[in-house]
User: What shape does this take?
Amino acid sequence: MIKYNQVKKILKDNVTSIKKTELISLDKATNRYLATEIKSKFFIPPKDNSAVDGFIFNYKQYNISKNKNFVIKGEINAGETSKSKIDVNSFLRISTGGQTPSNLDTVVMQENVVTEKNNIVSINGLIKKGMNVRKKGEDIKKGQLVFSKGHKLRPQDIGMLASLGISRVKVVKKIKIGILSNGNELIEPGKKKKFYQIYDSNRYMLKSFLNKESVDWIDFKIVKDKESSVLKKIKNAKKKCDVLVITGGASTGKKDFMSYAIKEIGTLNFWKVSIKPGRPFGFGILPINKPTLMIPGNPVASFTIFFLFGRFLINHMLGNNNFSHKSFKVKSNFVMKKKKGREEFLRARIFYKNNTMYVNKFKTQGAGILNSLVWADGLVKLDEEKERIKKNEFLEFFPFEV
Assistant: This one.
């Protein structure tokens, strides 16, 4: 049995990143992984410009003559090129984004200015040199690294790429992930079930996970607990996908064939991890270089293993080597005993008390209690060496949504 902290290293050491790339439009690039780094070819903004609608003037000259009325001598609009130099005694109306002349350096908001016909009668509020002027390159410098290779593109990243004048980006090709459930007791949702049958929730839960990633999934449905059927299904599935995720059949029962099937067809790198829930978790490689995750059939264990390791594997394959689960410290609002020698992940919910973040655990922590995941907003980690959790103890919390 391997340790929790060994799993990611084994996955990383045995799985290579995808090399195939494609050029796609920005409209289709959200959640995709960059295949190259992105550097800016120019400054943003390209010139000094006004951050507000108002009036621009020379700060030094204003201080010399501030008791006088000033004549508004023109206007600068966004998208227009202004003269590089203008009479330092000038006051010009300027719109947001308007390019500032080099010798006019300060902008006052129009609501702080009292005008009469074409004259500025008074300016209200404190005036500071350079106020309301956005400097050249304030956002992005020319030649600046904006995105690293392997970065997963978010909506704000798409906006930045567009501002760089980029309409298409080179991304890593989507990988195909096969999802297969195993168990005689399983039945498809929507069908009429007998009392000994259960609806297959794991496959749908895992597919929902994958919808958030830069992948295409293939649903290989349910395979019954028959060794020849399991072998045939896996051999067929590996031809059609880049990664295979199997839920169920990973334990030690007489009908749990998965670890044997993987060894028969490919290589079993490990089976069983010192973690709760999810101990009968296995990983192997099918020909040719097809990573395979064997995930326990209990829905909470299935969710936990994929949340912790499945997403890590996918991100690694897509070139995101900086992927890590977001986590932060919270205080426990419970006490409990724990078996030493394994990591445990409890379904938990955050609440605030006296501006401090606390966490409650779900009352029943069984690996088959799917409602515990619905109730929770994250997992709280109990370290391997712990035997007892005290109230107000700091614990690491992994939120489901980040």
About this structure: The mean pLDDT is 93. The CA atoms of residues 12 and 332 lie 33 Å apart.
